[in-house]
Design a protein that fits this description.
By secondary structure, the protein is of the alpha+beta class. It has a single domain, classed as Double Stranded RNA Binding Domain. Helix content is 39%, strand content 17%. The strands form two sheets. It has a three-stranded antiparallel β-sheet with strand order 3-4-5, with helices on one face. Strand 1 and strand 2 form a beta hairpin.
Length: 137
């Protein structure tokens, strides 16, 4: 079972793991051992709350297919169990990132004092530039 939060978790029956051969360097071990993991998670058929499903389906991520299936390929480690744990952790991070609600921004106005200071600095800077001209004797 994958714990997302204190109230939300995903049962193992909704997660589909496939052991595949890893890519890249590793010598003969790569050709013989299926140490990489493909994790598939169907958002639409899951037991997640509707809020989570809606946010995940609208989330822009290349690992989420148009069918609503999250596919994660974990091959960072040389043994299958660590790759499995890595895939679960990455799935959890995707779900948490998709369901994170940003704090609403509130428009603010600069204070009258800060506006006055800004205009005074602009005037002073203009005077400095104006005084750089030719000097007539």
């Amino acid at each position: 079972m994958l714990e997302i939060s204190s109230r939300v978790s995903i049962p193992d029956s909704e997660l589909e793991f496939n052991a595949i051969r890893a890519q890249g360097s590793g010598g003969q071990n790569v050709n013989k051992v299926s140490s990489a993991i493909h994790l598939r998670f169907d958002i639409k058929r899951s037991s997640l709350p509707d809020f989570y499903k809606e946010r995940l389906l609208n989330f822009r991520d290349q690992r989420i297919s148009s069918d609503g299936v999250i596919v994660i390929k974990a091959q960072n480690f040389r043994d299958q169990e660590r790759n499995r744990i890595d895939a679960l952790e990455r799935l959890k991070q995707i779900i948490l990132k998709a369901t994170h609600v940003e704090k609403a921004r509130r428009a603010t106005k600069p204070t009258r004092s800060s506006q006055r200071k800004r205009m005074d600095k602009k005037t002073q800077r203009g005077q400095t530039k104006k005084n750089r001209g030719k000097v007539d004797y």
